[in-house]
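As a warm-up, study this chain.
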Amino acid sequence: MDVGNLGSSSLRFRFAGQEKVRISSGGDVGINTTSPQNNAHFQHYTSTARHQSFQSTDGDLAIVSDNNSNPVVYVKGTGSADLVNVFDNTNEVFTIIDGGNVGINDSTPNEKLDVGGAIQASQGYKTAGHPILAYASFTDIGSDNYATRVGSTGTSTLRHTQIYGGGSHIATFDGANTRLGINTTVPGARLHVKGSGEILRLETTASGGGQCYIDFDDETATRASIGMRGSSSDTLTIAALNAGLRFDTSGKTQAMNIAADGKVGINQASPATYQLEVVGSFAATTKSFVIDHPTKEKHKLRYACLEGPENSVYVRGKTSDSVIELPDYWTGLVHDDSITVNVTPIGNHKVWVESINNNSITIGSDGSEYFYTVFAERKDVDKLEVEVAD
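Now compare it with the structure written out below.
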């Protein structure tokens, strides 16, 4: 090694006759260079396209690699200049600006980390130590499957997930109670949708109509369904697939029931005997029955009910007895003072009503046969209000 003094200007170190290090009178150091570029105070020089400089005009640290004569890394520490700049050729690919914001493919990051491109993380992403996005094995649906997990996937105080759009709240996943709220931050059920007008739309993909419905299942089978079923998309179907249908109102539990065999009960929880069973009163403009015509093919027979201003019953018959015994249950069914009797003799004879007593009618006649009809008003129900204001 040969150490030489170049007067008052610098100190040099030579090896095998070649100068390797020079220290100027101002304290600047050059390795493999007698004149450090960019006024560097310390520079390790290999070539114009490969050298490292400290405290040069390029910054506190500047590294020039083989791919360009421009530095690939800048480290600066003065004023408001960027702290670190990394280049690929002349493209800036990594930046740390004054204040600590980091940019990847973004030379002016506005957040602590700005990335100009896609991000890949093999272990997911965390916020304040809470995992919020992960990629994991998922075989519940099928083998060899994976799933993206959104939200807190670990045991932590981060229990809920919210979705925003356009600066406004859209949905909340309540992790504490396993609920989803749309347009509400406090969902009160497994699915809680808040709004007005059309809240939910189900749309079939079949052109011109098709099936579109909601099924209600337990863990073994579908128990009920509501929606458009069958061949017509215009038909709304409410189906109880294993039992009957029940309709409740605010003032009446089981206001209407439809049994599994189709029998309907109004105010009747278990309709079993009649196709329609009503416990209470009902009103209609007309009341009639329609049956297959007993004597004409391809015809129906329709009869209307005889109507009057009371809820009445009757019995009728043919006899020659002097006493007509009324049904024993009439004592609890009708008002005694409402009983009226019509008698019609058969042939040219005389017949009349003698008296009505003790649930029987005494008839006077000349011993001939006669027809009779007995009417009475029911007392087990309220009297009929004939004229009712709208």
